Hints:
The structure is a single chain. It contains nine helices and four strands; from the N terminus they run βαβββαααααααα. The protein has two domains: about 80 residues, Glutaredoxin (3-Layer(aba) Sandwich); about 130 residues, Glutathione S-transferase Yfyf (Class Pi), Chain A, domain 2 (Up-down Bundle), CATH 1.20.1050. α1 links the parallel β1 and β2. It is α+β, with helices and mostly antiparallel strands. The two termini are about 35 Å apart. It has a four-stranded mixed beta sheet, with helices on one face. The chain is globular and about 50 Å long.
Amino acid sequence: MAFDKDTVFPRLYHLESSSSLRVLWALEELNETKGLEYSIKKIPRSMNAYPTKEAHPTGKAPILCIGPKPEEALAEAGHILAYLAKTYAEGMWAPDKEDQDRDAFFERFANASVLHKTDALLILEVPAQVYPLFLGYLGYFWYIPMMRRFKSDLKTLYKFMEDSLSDEKPWFAGKRRGLADFNAIWAMDIGSQRGYFDGKAFPKLQNWLDRVHALPAYQRALEKGGKFNVKKF
Length: 233
């Protein structure tokens, strides 16, 4: 992709109440610290599964356009975050040498193990919200045994995350915030809002979540991104 990062401003296609909030948070940090200018196109949350095909063939937000051509559009939140780190962050999110493996692991752990279990629970719960009363709750009670198993699995994952945080390394990227933390926030926001995650049982993990939520860049991302409610889609 041949373009000048100093003259081409990224454009984010942002879907409300979705994983693209973490990309918006990253863009706000880059705007604050590096002066990166960007634009945003907000897309309301709806049952329309492909609201952004004008920008990318997948039609799935987040999508980051870095030029006027279709091939200059990036999809997938984790991929976009890695691109922003490489292109604009100038090492700001790079872990110390001793934490490089830790950061790389938690990037993948957040988007695989934690998010997969969280999504599985979410998928089983959503029918009770979107289908007619009888059908929705019939399915909900049918899936209760599976949901209990997934919640138990998530507790194991939360315990591992809890034990990985310390005063010396308060971030999943290590001593300072990095890509692992940007990637982890989506699954943790779902877990927190929908009650899968009990902060009292995992105080260090709750502290991490509170610190992310208190960041000015995260707060601005919430303001600019519109509705962020994963309790009910």
